[in-house]
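Format notes (please read before filing issues)

Several people have asked whether sequences and structure tokens are stored in separate files. They are not. Every record keeps both together, in the order shown below: the sequence lines, then the token lines. Line labels are part of the format and must not be stripped during preprocessing.
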Amino acid sequence: MEFVIPIPSAPVLPVAESTACFPVRRIYCVGRNYADHAREMGGNPDREPPFFFGKPSDTVVPRGGDIAYPPLTANLHHEVELVVALGGGGRDIPAAKALACVYGYAVGIDLTRRDLQAKFKDKGQPWEMAKGFDQSAPVSAVMPASRCGHPTSGAIWLSVDGTDRQRGDLAQMTWDVAEVIAHLSAYVALAPGDLIFTGTPSGVGALVRGNRVCCGIEGIGELEIVLV
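Then the structure lines:
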């Protein structure tokens, strides 16, 4: 088969303690999945059905590192999240069977152009450009579930230049991983290679050029980025 342009390379994530790689198909994100974050964003902290948005797969930055401060924003925010890496999929997956689809877990940062998001929301416009810009999804190596299990609790944290910004526990998620997969699979057919960002605890805030951001999740790993 002849192609008119070179085939783009597929984004991949390293697998922890291995030479293997995890190919990334799609990226889904859950909005406001921690009650305290919903409150700080002016939303309803009650257990309402989850909502989802996406990022292009090539926004992934494997293992973090230097991140270019994006254009058209003066209010770039950090959001540390547990990332689910799917090894299976399907449509209308029952929550009781959802964890069988999980290959592993990683630490991710959902970078957000908060000022653009607010402007788009005020106008009733889509806000993908506030979320899906270049390098907006740094992700650590994937820890296989065969080694870490399926965490339902554990510290999740983020610091900027050594100062704590976010600190919570996975047990605070409004919808747990199995429930998130079940809800999301009602909208779309999930498949191996999909990543799901599962929401962030409170404490999100602005970043400036030169900031060093360190974050981690107990039993999963750590991630570091520098805004340049």
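For reference, the curators noted about this record: The chain has a mean pLDDT of 95. The chain has one domain: 19-227.
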